[in-house]
């Protein structure tokens, strides 16, 4: 049994499962084509078992995967033991956020300068794009991730979501007053849910640039992963040292927010 929380394992499983389903090929049919048992292929697609590079090459060859993507899948096999991974595409980021989100009981996000994606209205998101704070070329994929994260807020009330928002993010610098007022009303509405908490952190308590944005995935009281945006990519960390560091940062934010009134 391999560690299902390792990011490369999650991405490889997601790629293989999604590609097979996009081709309209059943699991049993593909397993027969490549000569492995359906239960083995199922375990690979769910991240319970890691395939050898030769097996992955056989699978992606049967699926007609493009050469560039085929190389990436082979890289993921070689990186399966790594506890960190840079998500090189929005697709990979979506695989990882979805997997860690499903396994977490509490998701904590710190957003120092803009409203978190999971809380954004479409008008606010378009305003960010217009002023160059988001990448227009990746807008469709970014919108898919935003939509899936927003759906998660309401689809499973057993999971807790806590958002810490920096004072800079609550200023209407990136959009007009109407858009900003609608955005705040939307946050107020979401924060009425029993599983969503939104807290503001003042600039005095946490000066801009002191703590970079991150999303921490917790299962009960233990951290299982953290996502850290970096330029156009997102780094996913599962090392013990890295997780301990972000747990301390999370606790620091709790203290920094304690003197600041809730957003609602």
Number of domains: 2
Share of helical residues: 40-55%
CATH T-level topology of the largest domain:
Endonuclease, Chain A
User: For the terminal residues, how far apart are their CA atoms?
Assistant: 45 Å
Shape: elongated
Strand content: 15-25%
Average pLDDT taken over every residue: 88
CATH class identity of the largest domain: Alpha Beta
CA radius of gyration: 20 Å
- Total beta-strand segments: 7
Q: Low-confidence parts, pLDDT < 50 over ≥5 residues?
A: none
Largest sheet: 7 strands, mixed
H and E string: HHHHHEHEHHEHEEEEH
Pairing-aware structural class of the strands and helices? alpha/beta
What does this 3D model show about the protein?
The protein is of the alpha/beta class and 264 residues long. It folds into 2 domains: 76 residues, 434 Repressor (Amino-terminal Domain); 169 residues, 2-Layer Sandwich (Endonuclease, Chain A), CATH 3.30.870. It is built from 10 helices and 7 strands. Strands 1-7-6-5-2-3-4 form a 7-stranded mixed β-sheet, with helices on both faces. Helix 2 crosses helix 3 and helix 4 packs antiparallel against helix 5. The longest helix is centred in the last third of the chain and has 19 residues.
Question: What is the compact description of this entry?
Answer:
With 264 residues, the protein is of the alpha/beta class. The chain is 48% helix and 16% strand.
């Amino acid at each position: 049994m391999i560690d299902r929380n390792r990011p490369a394992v999650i991405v490889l499983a997601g790629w293989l499962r999604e590609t097979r389903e996009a081709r309209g090929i059943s699991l049993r049919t593909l397993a027969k084509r490549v000569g492995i048992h359906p239960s083995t292929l199922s375990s690979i697609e769910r991240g319970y078992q890691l395939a050898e590079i030769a097996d992955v090459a056989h699978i992606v060859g049967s699926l007609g995967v493009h050469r560039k993507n085929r190389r990436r899948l082979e890289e993921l096999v070689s990186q399966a033991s790594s506890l960190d991974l840079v998500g090189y595409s929005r697709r990979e980021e979506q695989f990882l956020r979805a997997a860690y989100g499903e396994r977490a009981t509490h998701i904590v996000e710190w957003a120092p300068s803009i409203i978190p994606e999971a809380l954004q209205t479409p008008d606010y998101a378009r305003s960010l794009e217009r002023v160059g704070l988001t990448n227009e070329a990746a807008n469709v994929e970014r919108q898919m991730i935003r939509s899936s994260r927003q759906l998660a807020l309401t689809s499973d009330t057993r999971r807790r979501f806590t958002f810490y928002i920096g004072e800079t993010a609550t200023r209407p610098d990136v959009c007009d007053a109407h858009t900003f007022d609608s955005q705040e009303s939307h946050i107020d509405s979401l924060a009425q849910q029993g599983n969503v908490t939104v807290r503001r952190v003042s600039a005095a308590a946490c000066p801009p640039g002191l703590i970079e944005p991150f999303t921490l995935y917790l299962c009960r009281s233990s951290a299982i992963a953290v996502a850290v945006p970096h330029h156009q990519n997102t780094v996913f960390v599962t090392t013990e040292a890295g997780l301990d560091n972000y747990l301390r940062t999370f606790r620091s934010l709790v203290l920094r927010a304690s003197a600041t009134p809730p957003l609602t």
